Structure formats: C-alpha cells, structure tokens
Task: structure prediction
Amino acid sequence: MSLTEQAIVRIRQLIKDGTLPPGARLPPEQDLAALLGLSRNLLREAVRSLVTTRVLEVRRGDGTYVTSLEPALLLEGVGIAVEMMQGNDLLEITEVRRLFEPVATGLAASRITAVQLAEVEQHLNTMIAAQDDVETLTHHDDAFHRAVFEATGNKALCALLSGIASRTLRARVWRGLLEGNVAGRTISEHVAIYRALADRDVALAEAAALMHVSTTETWLRENLGRPSSGSEHEINA
Result:
C-alpha cells in the first residue's frame, strides 16, 4: 500500500473500533496527525479520499466529521459507477440485477405495508397514464422500483439495487421501447409485479420481477452500440 492508503486504513480503523463513531468530529489536524504518526499533508490526502467516499464530511468553519455511515450514503457511489459503464459492462450489471432484484421483490411481497403498496400503485398508475412521455415514465419507473426495494426493510439491499438500476439506463431503454412500440409490454410487467405484491405472493413476485429484468437484458443485448434517433449516439449510459 502507498502511504496515503496506509493513512486511510488507520483512520478507518479508528472509525471501525468506535474511537470515531458516526457523527463524531475529528480531532484537530495536528493532534490527529500526531496520534496516527502521519505528516499533516499525508493526513489531508487521506481525509480528502474519505470525504469522496462519504465516510467523512467537511463542515466549513466547523471541522471534519464522520458521516452517518448509512448504507444509502456509502453505496451512493455505485449509482455513479453504473452511470459511467458502457457496452458489455452494462450487461454484467443487468445480470447482477437479475440475480438480486427478483429475490428483493419477493422479500418485499412478504413485508410490504398498505401504505407502501399504495405508493407503488401510485407510480404504476402514473406510468400507465403517460405511456408516450419518456421523462415521466423514467421518473416513475425508477420511483416504482425504489418503493419496492424500500418495502424489503433492508437498507443495504435498497441502496445497492437503487444504484444498480441506473435511472439513465432506464431512460435509454424507455426511448427504445417507445420507438419500437412495445412500451405496453413493459407496463404490463410492472402491473404483474404490483399484483403479486398486492397478493403478498412471494413466488409470483419473484417470477414477475425476473421476467421484467429479463426483458431489459434482452433489449440491451439487441441494442447495445446502436445509434439512437436523438442527439445521443449510443446506449452507453
């Protein structure tokens, strides 16, 4: 490891062993550098890196603090990484979705509350009413699945899947579906997921989600690299 990486490991160890718990303010730079046996420049580099990964946050005029370390915060970078992926990397991400999303949807079916189900239904109804509007479809498609993931009650799973299911990628897929006049099929897949959730049918929810992700995967395999009809050139979300 480089010296900076070693410094990062030392700070993370202070956090993991509880010396610096979530929300704690870091000691003054000079004191922390002395405690860790680091130069102040090296400490600054390590802190900058941990700020980027949302482990630390700088509050101007106040100091540097450990973040909440909540999964949604720490896994935020997953979504950014997915946005930058291209070509076959997108197919690999879709394979990950195929592994996890059906199981998560089944889990949601066993745990979803009436309030959460109503939220899923609201997004579904908006999608049905806006089948020619890519922006509306994308927004509520994303919100539909986030509501399903949240219904699992598993914050880490919700954060991971929300990051993997890139909103930019959804927009590209919806454009393609609308151009191919097959958006109705995807809407019906969302309806099937909703009905399985409403029935609290775990097996059916898993099957409906698997069908839905498989549709996206098939579309990607058929359309990766093809020019779009708009100003964008490729489906490199």
